[in-house]
Amino acid sequence: MNEDRRRTTADREEEIRREIRERTEYAADGSASLIVARSAGFCFGVKRAVDTVYEQVKTGQGPICTFGPIIHNEEVVRDLEEKGVRVIRDETELTSVTEGTVIIRSHGVPMYIYEMLREKGLTVVDATCPFVKKIHRYVHEYSQNGYDIVIIGSASHPEVEGIRGWCLRPPVVVATEEEAEAVPRGTDRPLCIVSQTTFNLKKFYKLVEIIASLRYDKPVVLNTICNATEERQTEARSIAELADAMIVIGGRHSSNTQKLTEICKKECNNTFFIQTFDDLNPSLLPSRGCVGITAGASTPNNLIEEVSKQCRKIILNRC
Known about the structure:
This protein is α/β, with parallel strands linked by helices. The protein has twelve helices and 13 strands.
């Protein structure tokens, strides 16, 4: 990370800390406080995808399907299923679809899925996050120009699976320092590094540093972690530094929520990962001190509001 970026990051972190102080809610006697992250909840790409499905339910050509869960939140997926939206889990299931509309989920899909859909003559609505689409273009263009591609992210995550499907030769996927150290070195092809949009920013730069040190050439590094992810992670870390207990709300399969939980646990041992308020044991929350709340990019506002409302009753009104 260069000096200008360090300075910009430090300035933004200080700005976030100032905003947190302004947003802190206190009990009447000042002995307990609650902080709800401003960045918690749907990011632009997720909101766009979810709104797209609900709009298709009203106006689209049925039956309506999504290729994979539209987002990693079971509450949202369940509500859509109740409205008749079918989730197609893989290309094997896709072969059974002969009519209607298929919506591409926010995580994106490999190039060959689009080809399958075109061949079947289905109506396709693309709800891929624009930031993910940008990564598809990057890896496709760089691999066309002879670059090897390294994707920093979780190999099993659908976003990474989709990105892999736009590379013209098999990419290397890296999520740990051990995997970074095993990246092939000294080939005759240049290297381009991209990231899953929801990857941990600090970990991304650490893995880039390891990979760059192993290569004879200087790799092209494209930080494709989206701004909303960076902002959410920075704010969550800043709140967790102050908190005596931290609550992270999100779907159990949500990668970005899992990463938020990891970040918060490093700063606050009492970090709770919940899907709804029913998953939380209120007796574990401190009777005095500070409780922080954040949520992943796939967490609906109504769930955040419900947890926040109940925590205000428990934390701020019992003192």
